[in-house]
Amino acid sequence: MKKFRKSAGGILKHGDEGLLCKRGSKETLPNIWSIPGGGIENGESPGQAAIREFKEETDIEINTDLDLVGIIDNFNDDGTKRGMMFVFLQNTKDKKEPDLNKATHGHEHTSCKYFKLDDIPKQKEVEQLYDIIKKVLN
Known about the structure:
The chain is α+β, with helices and mostly antiparallel strands.
């Protein structure tokens, strides 16, 4: 049986746009537009994990002024819960651009882009995340 996995990620919002990154073909959720995020390490809060993962994956420093905007439950094929992801929001007045070449885990993504709500690609694999993004970008 696989270990229950807790993860955290962040939505960086600038005006009416949110930053998404396209996962690499060899990563979890390959070729899917998602938010920067990953596993919560021992002794780390979900907010601390979101901040660390955002920096590792985009080279953008977000601060501790985060709002928890949703929790996504992940299930196995048999319906048992296998994990959860805490989704945080950071509003920014300055449009911060990711630098995947400087990011320590930038290789996990092929590109990053700010999207307006109507321009976000609809992807079945991340429907719960899309619902959260829709709520914060409205």
